[in-house]
Design brief:
mainly alpha, 2 domains, 10 helices, globular, hydrolase activity, Epoxide hydrolase
Length: 202
């Protein structure tokens, strides 16, 4: 019998209206975007509950499209709808998926999506540090297929002078090729080498 994911539809208030001056505005224009689907407590949980925990984890972890994730109501992941089989990338094993699925069954997905529902609260709680700079030596690593890298304006920010103004001791921005969101899992040897080389400077 296939295991079904346990959900806990206890959402938090907020995240109902996103500031149109932020890059999130572009995510509001499509009702199928995940950022829109998580707003209503219980909505995305109910959609994901139609899939097994293993399927949910495979579809999230194997996602390699630099565009935002679309989740049309009643259809599941747009890039891999329904029970469409997912080919695991080389860095992800069935044993990995089994472990993650077991953890997901224990906790449900609500805790994870509440992070996005509570963005407004996070901004309020960190308001005192608005404009603060990161004053430690920094090396920034991201994959060129990471959807966050392609969010409106962020690539220019990361590669331009604005990032350096916010992180004055930024030493290097590394954009790893053919790598998506989980850089340390996809390319562990390369990431470890980057970190080791960076730390050896001190």
């Amino acid at each position: 019998m296939k295991r079904q994911m346990i959900t806990n539809p206890m959402g938090v208030k907020g995240f109902k209206k996103l500031n149109k001056d932020t890059w999130f505005a572009s995510y509001q224009t499509n009702s199928s975007s995940v950022m829109n689907r998580v707003v209503k407590p219980g909505d995305i949980e109910a959609e994901l509950a139609k899939m097994t925990s293993e399927t949910v984890m495979k579809k999230f972890l194997a996602y390699r499209d630099p565009d935002q994730i679309y989740f049309p109501k009643g259809k599941g992941f747009r890039y891999s709808p329904g029970d469409t089989p997912v080919t695991l990338p080389p860095w992800l094993t069935e044993q990995d998926v089994e472990y993650y699925a077991n953890q997901l069954e224990k906790t449900g997905i609500t805790g994870a999506v509440n992070y996005y529902r509570a963005f407004h609260l996070s901004w309020e709680l960190t308001a005192a540090w608005r404009g603060a700079k990161v004053m430690v030596p920094t090396k920034f690593i991201i994959g060129d297929l990471d959807l966050t890298y392609h969010m409106p304006g962020l690539k220019d920010y990361m590669l331009g002078e604005a990032f350096k103004k916010d992180v004055p001791l930024l030493q290097e921005v590394v954009v790893m090729q053919d790598v998506a969101h989980f850089v340390n899992q996809e390319k562990p040897d390369e990431v470890n080498k980057h970190i080791s080389n960076f730390l050896q400077k001190f």
